[in-house]
Amino acid sequence: MRWADVLADKSLQDLPYKIELDRWGNVVMSPASNRHGRLLGVIYSLLEKIGHGRALIECSIDTPEGVKVADVAWGSEEFFARHGYTTPYPEAPEICVEIRSPANSEEEMRFKTRLYLEAGAREVWIVLESGEARFFGPEGERSQSVYGIDPRPHLEH
To answer: What is the rounded CA–CA span in Å between residue 36 and residue 42?
Structure first.
């Protein structure tokens, strides 16, 4: 499948799953909890405060390994001037956030972090449902976000 096919397929709409494509065009689904939904909202609100850009929930990004969907992302005004709301984006916005659910493995999170960074993200956040957060840049793991935001105090336990 191609991403346009996924968007047009009525049977894939209104599912309680996050949908992505692998490199062969196969649909991959991940279940989401209510806690996951709450964390999406909290992180979206924090990213909106950066200014000079916009936050997105469920941001689709074309990668060499298929279309991946960052749970939350932030793109600068320059990013949006280049791409608008193209679906999927041909490059990653500056910040891509994944909220790791119990169904996600550490290996999967490392894989997606690498894909987002290779696609142009400047920073990737991995947020656990427990409220812990890790930050990654092209150089590896960071102790904090270079964007001056720390989501950890805002993530309810």
So the answer is: 10
Q: Yes or no: is domain 32-154 CATH 2.60.40.10?
A: no
Residue-wise pLDDT for 77-108, tens only, equals: 999 999 999 999 999 999 999 999 877 889 99
- pTM assigned to the model: 0.84
At 75, which amino acid appears? Answer: G
List, for the chain, all residue ranges whose pLDDT scores fall below the cut of 50.
none
Residue 79: Cβ within 10 Å count: 19
Alpha helices in the chain (DSSP H): 3-8, 34-48, 77-83, 106-118
Measured between alpha carbons, how far is 43 from 66 in angstroms, rounded to an integer? Answer: 25
